[in-house]
Structures are given as structure tokens and as C-alpha cells.
Amino acid sequence: MNRCIFLAVLIAGIFAGCSKPTAEDYFSKAEAAEKQALAARDTLSNPEEVRRRFQPAVDAFESLIAAYPSHPLAESALFRLAGLRTNDTHEPQLAIDTYTRYVARYPEGEKTPLAMFLIGYLYNNELHNLDSASAAYKRYLAKYPNDQYASSAQFELNTLGKPMEEILPGAPAPASPEPKKSVKKKPA
Length: 188
What we know:
The chain is mostly helical. It has helices spanning 2-17, 23-41, 47-67, 72-87, 92-105, 112-125, 130-143, 150-158, 164-167. The model has no long low-confidence stretch (mean pLDDT 87). Among the domains are: 22-90; 107-161.
């Protein structure tokens, strides 16, 4: 009988030790990894190395979202993940995909208007996809005509594809690249 109790306690201990981390555990792990990556980011010049440094934060945020999709921290994790992909790893298409997931999952979320605006912004200013930018800005303005970013979205929509000197008269034209000079090799 003692043997059965010992075995039951042992099995219970094994299962307790194998339980999955809490949403708070994942979030804390993501924040710590993000903080560590941010500390190193400015010293790195290779974009792939920057992405590699942020990968533990990405993984922890994604794990939280997958394991606890209904937890209040999942909403924050998804928006933070999109911001990380926008500002830190500079992956605009992944950022757009993540903001789109946020909008779909949290249509009434506190940050949904900003996520919708940023989708248009990234299409326009990072990917230079004017059709997608226009569609995103129009969706945003239709849903949030009085939001704090509405005037910015309308300005972006009105100026899509226009050169800077047309948008801001008197602005300097972009510098054209110097023509390449041909270099003649001296005979050896």
C-alpha cells in the first residue's frame, strides 16, 4: 500500500513539474527577452542578428497568444508583438499581418483604431503598396472618422504617390544619385 501512495505522489509531482507556464510567465519572459534585445539592438548593424536577438521575445509573445487566447494579456501581447515587428525587427509585412490578427481578434479593442491606421501607414511608407494603403486608410476612416489619427489618415490618403515637393511646396527635391564615373585602369 505504501508503495502505491509513493507512486501516486511521484506521478503527481511529475505532472505538476510539467505544467505549462501561466500567461503571466510568458508575458514576463517576453518582456525580459525584449529588454535584453533592446539593450543590444543599437550596437548591431546586421538586421538578421537584430531579428535573432528579438526571437525569444517573439516566441514568448506567440506562445502566450496560442496557449491563452482568451486571457487579457493575450491582447496586449499581440499588439506588443506587432509593435516589435514594426519598430525593432523591421519586418513590415509581418507587422501588418500581426496588426490584422489583432483587429480580427479584438474588433472592439482599445488599440484597434491605432492598429488599423498602422496597417495603412506600413503599406504606404514601408512597402509602398499604394492600393493596399488606400484600402486600409479607407477602412480605418469609415470605422473611425473622428479618431485621433483620422486627420493623418486622410492626409496620407490624399497624398498617396505624390512627390514630396508637391505635398510640401518649397521642400527640397530628393537628391539624385551621383553619376558613376568610369575609371580607366592603368596598364601594368
